[in-house]
């Protein structure tokens, strides 16, 4: 449980929050309240950079006045619901201004999603209002719906409930969980990009496993992401000790473990890997958050590819079909091509390194082939294979301690090669394509492309060192057919 202030203390804290005084002065004479996540975070003693303001009347004029007072920019958020946003020109803070959705602030709070977000502080006098008991729920860490229509009014709130579990470690109150399950068939109703935004926040939160468990509990894996729900009770072979769903959650857990023990898994390059995973990728996700999401979906086609013959269970082709299913799902979620392509690549390539373990030590040609094939997700998919291997604890030889240790050692080595590739790019050609074609007496086309691919591999392997050697190697390659 968390200690939360009383109403009087909450009002004092809210009035002292950054930019609240300027907003209050600017809106003097206009009935206005600080509401939503800002009040929740103030009650929890968290840093507040984003303010939510409810006003009686149209929000455009108040928003423009706030923008002028704070030297920000104002713009309309939605044509469906009267709301405007004021942003810092350097994205350091924002103030959302929305019209009351009822005649009174109490009526407005009753239409919100959860009681922990249905607390308000009047800007003029600093009086805190908590008509639905949000502060006690905040102290108890309970997510409670404001009313029986909370989820049907906006089914996106189903995802938001699970996201709050992942962010804050709260629990969904029993009656609210039942209400959520009853509404879950409508989980796919909101616009895909809205659901994706919540999913990205959940997977990137401090406890994504708890958030995923909450999604499962309230039916979101049945209706919003059936690719994950279908993994339940899909029995695997002796390489695994869990069904596909349990295995998938252990792979996500493995990614979290790798994040917290980077040096153990990536050696002296740990700082570089940490910086790499922190980079923005797409749709609000860092590479690290996207990797967690990739772990969630990497085996999503196993139910469709499962076969059993003579007691042997296989999932042949689940990597390729998984990439296709990810593309379909994330198109429905209106994701960027960059994110969906990244996730599809992880699924498509996640088996490759495991098959290379028995060939250790690898020569430079084999290393090149892996990096060239998995580019631009070589680092990411290598980390995924580690989590995948750690989650396969069956009785078969592939799950033996030696195989696991060899896989982790190969991955550690490959991470170093992949970092170098990512920083320096693939091997450069000694000759431009047109000059090479002239030297070989061939025309530009597919044949030249194959020659250049061979020369890149030869240079990476240290087999050629200058343009003359490149031409001679190319001639030998062509003669060999």
Strand order of the largest sheet: 3-4-5-2-1-6-7
Q: What structural class is derived from the secondary structure elements?
A: alpha+beta
Q: In angstroms, what separates the terminal alpha carbons?
A: 72 Å
The counted number of beta strands is: 13
- Tally of distinct domains: 4
Percent in helix: 55-70%
Described by its quaternary structure, the protein is single chain
Q: Estimate the mean pLDDT confidence.
A: 95
DSSP strand (E) fraction? 5-15%
Total of helices: 27
Flag low-confidence runs.
none
- As a whole number of angstroms, the C-alpha radius of gyration is 27 Å
* Largest sheet, strands/sense/barrel: 7 strands, mixed
Characterize the overall form. elongated
Summarize the structure.
Helix 8 runs parallel beside helix 10 (192-203) and helix 14 (244-260) packs antiparallel against helix 17 (287-297). The protein is elongated.
What does this structure look like?
This protein is of the alpha+beta class. It folds into 4 domains: 7-140, Beta Polymerase, domain 2, CATH 3.30.460; 150-224, Hydrophobic Seed Protein, CATH 1.10.110; 227-424, no CATH class; 433-479, no CATH class. Helices cover 56% and strands 10% of the residues. It has 27 helices and 13 strands. It has helices at residues 7-15, 20-26, 36-43, 60-70, 105-110, 134-140, 150-153, 156-168, 174-183, 192-203, 208-217, 220-223, 226-229, 244-260, 262-266, 270-277, 287-297, 302-305, 318-332, 337-349, 352-356, 364-374, 378-390, 401-424, 433-440, 446-460, 467-479, and strands spanning 32-35, 50-55, 72-78, 83-88, 94-99, 120-122, 128-129, 142-143, 171-172, 280-282, 285-286, 307-309, 312-314. A 7-stranded mixed β-sheet has the order 3-4-5-2-1-6-7. A two-stranded parallel ribbon has the order 8-9. β6 (120-122) and β7 form a beta hairpin. The longest helix has 24 residues, at 401-424. The radius of gyration is 27 Å and the shape is elongated. The relative contact order is 0.06. The mean pLDDT is 95.
């Amino acid at each position: 449980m968390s200690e939360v202030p009383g109403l009087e203390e909450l009002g004092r804290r809210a009035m002292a929050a950054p930019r609240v005084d300027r907003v209050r002065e600017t809106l003097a004479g206009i009935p206005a309240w600080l509401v939503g996540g800002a009040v929740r975070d103030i009650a929890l003693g968290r840093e507040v950079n984003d303010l939510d303001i409810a006003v009686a009347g149209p929000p455009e004029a108040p928003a423009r006045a706030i923008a002028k007072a704070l030297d920000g920019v104002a713009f309309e958020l939605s044509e469906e619901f009267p709301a405007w946003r004021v942003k810092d020109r350097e994205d350091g803070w924002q103030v959302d201004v929305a019209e009351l959705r009822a005649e009174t602030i109490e009526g407005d709070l009753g239409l919100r999603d959860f009681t922990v977000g249905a607390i308000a502080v009047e800007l003029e006098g600093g009086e805190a209002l908590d008509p639905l008991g949000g502060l006690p729920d905040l102290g108890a860490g309970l997510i409670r719906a404001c009313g029986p229509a909370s989820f049907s009014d906006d089914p996106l709130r189903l995802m938001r409930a699970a996201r709050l579990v992942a962010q804050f470690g709260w629990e969904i109150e029993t009656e609210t969980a039942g209400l959520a399950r009853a509404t879950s068939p409508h989980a796919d109703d909101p616009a895909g990009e809205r659901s994706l935004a919540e999913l990205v926040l959940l997977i990137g939160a401090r406890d994504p496993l708890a958030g995923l468990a909450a999604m499962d509990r309230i039916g979101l894996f049945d209706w919003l992401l059936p690719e994950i729900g279908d993994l339940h009770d899909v029995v695997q072979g002796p390489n695994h000790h869990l069904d596909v769903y349990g295995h998938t959650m252990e792979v996500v857990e493995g990614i979290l473990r790798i994040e917290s023990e980077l040096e153990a898994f990536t050696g002296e390059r740990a700082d570089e890997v940490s910086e790499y995973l922190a980079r923005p990728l797409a749709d609000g996700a860092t590479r690290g958050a996207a990797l967690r999401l990739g772990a969630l979906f990497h085996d999503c086609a196993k139910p469709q590819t499962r076969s059993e013959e003579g007691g042997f269970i296989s999932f042949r082709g689940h990597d390729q079909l998984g990439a296709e299913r990810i593309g379909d799902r994330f198109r429905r979620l209106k994701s960027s091509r960059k994110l969906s392509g990244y996730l599809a690549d992880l699924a498509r390539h996640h088996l490759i390194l495991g098959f290379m373990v028995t060939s250790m030590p690898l020569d430079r040609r084999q290393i090149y082939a892996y990096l060239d094939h998995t580019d631009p997700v070589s680092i990411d998919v290598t980390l995924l294979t580690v989590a995948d291997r750690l989650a396969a604890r069956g009785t078969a030889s592939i799950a033996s301690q030696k195989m696991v240790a060899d896989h982790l050692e190969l991955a550690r080595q490959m991470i170093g090669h992949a970092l170098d590739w990512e920083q320096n790019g693939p091997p450069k050609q000694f000759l431009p394509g047109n000059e090479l074609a002239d030297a070989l007496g061939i025309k530009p086309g597919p044949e030249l492309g194959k020659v250049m691919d061979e020369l890149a591999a030869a240079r990476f392997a240290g087999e050629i060192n200058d343009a003359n050697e490149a031409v001679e190697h190319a001639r030998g390659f062509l003669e060999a057919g």
